[in-house]
Write a structure and sequence with these properties.
about 220 residues; mainly alpha; two-stranded antiparallel sheet; 2 strands
């Protein structure tokens, strides 16, 4: 997880807070809309039952009750319409705020990313240069090590009887390849594919390092 600069994190938090505000308002409106819808359905069912029970009685005593139910249904429908409109307005308003806050956050992030890169790039690159130099030094030292091993034999010949070289062969030291891979792991050399994997993918493959030291990217 990237550690964000304080300014960027504050901008992200503001964006998320707007979304949370919309979520809270939306939830309350949904609850109110559900209540009004249920109430309208219940009153309509009551009105329908009342009318059905007095279909043949034009002067039924229940007419005031019917009128009251109709009025209450209309009032509830108006309230439902208002809540639905409020829900839409809330979404449009907060969505507009979120768009503005998102653009602000990304703009700040772009500026901070540039600052972060400029501040640390030379140091990060110098570590690569130092590592390369240390690697080449290690190869030079490896060459010196091989030469020192051979010198034990050759200097002994020179100080005793050089003619013995015909009878006693020089010790064999296997050549270590730092470039040719031949399908086998190569943990001592670095080729362009390995540089690409490390730089572009953040990966160090199993064939490029000792077992257990692999890095599989972000």
């Amino acid at each position: 997880m990237t550690t964000m600069p304080a300014k960027v994190q504050a901008a992200i938090d503001a964006y998320k807070a707007a979304g949370q505000k919309l979520g809270d308002v939306d939830q309350r409106l949904d609850e109110r809309i559900a209540e009004l819808t249920a109430s309208i359905n219940a009153m309509q069912a009551e009105l329908d039952a009342l009318i059905d029970s007095t279909l043949d009685d034009l002067d039924a005593a229940t007419q005031p009750q019917e009128t009251d139910l109709r009025r209450r249904i209309v009032d509830a429908q108006l309230a439902l319409s208002a809540m639905t409109d409020r829900k839409g307005r809330a979404f449009r308003t907060v969505s507009g705020d979120q768009d503005r806050l998102a653009k602000a956050a990304v703009t700040i992030a772009k500026e901070e990313a540039r600052k972060f890169f400029d501040a640390g790039h030379d140091d990060a690159l110098s570590k690569v240069a130092e590592a390369k130099y240390a690697y080449l030094q290690a190869i030079v030292q490896y060459r010196a090590f091989r030469a020192a091993a051979g010198a034990i034999y050759y200097e002994t010949l020179r100080e005793t009887n050089p003619n013995l070289a015909r009878d006693i062969d020089a010790p064999f030291f296997a050549e270590q390849s730092f470039e040719f891979r031949g399908g086998s792991p190569q943990i001592y050399g670095v080729d362009s594919t390995e540089v690409h994997n490390a730089l572009k993918l953040g990966r160090i493959e199993a064939g490029s390092c000792a077992i257990g030291r692999e890095v599989y990217g972000d």
